[in-house]
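User: Run a structure prediction on this.
Assistant: Running it now.
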Amino acid sequence: MLYASVLIYGINVARSVVEEKTSRIFEVLLSTASADSLMLGKLLGVGAVGLTQMGIWIGLVVFYAGSSMAAGQGIHGLSSLGITNAELGFFVIFFLGGFYLYSALAAALGSTVSGEQEVQQFSFILISPLVVSVVLLPYVIGNPNSTTAIVLSLLPPFTPIIMYMRICAQMPPAWQVWLSVVLLAASVWAMVWLAARIYRVGVLMYGKRATLPEILRWIRYS
């Protein structure tokens, strides 16, 4: 679900930024609000659309698990499917953290390009940590307490999937779980701050794709 939501709605955030650049709408919006506020509003607005759809899917699963139809098939609530309340709660935490981490990165990348075709070019960069996480799932489920699984679960780009799979396979020590949550939350804050500094300059740049030295200069601007 995280992979699909980032792929669909994270890319939509980047496309929305590019659309504002090409239509020059941002120049009008900038006269009434700061670039930081506009970018954060974009993340919350576009993100709310994706999260609403995910919420509907989860709600349907919960509704079905408690229905008489499911009871006739031997399913009596989420617990009979092996889903605990703790797993459901951590799913929400890691899903939200991962979604906004990658959406902020998408907004930053979107502000550095000038056309939708370039958005497609960096889409793999955006989702590559998720691809790695999905590929490593069999190993993590089979070895939830290995050094590799522990290290990856504490690295924010991999935390949403790897740590959650460790929780589902075998509950890790509490300090590891909450350390991963703190690191993920700090990374979301840092990525939003970094994306805002890139965004406020990048959306006003036209004609060519920004280079890495130029992006670093944007970040240093006060």
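The first helix runs from residue 2 to 23.
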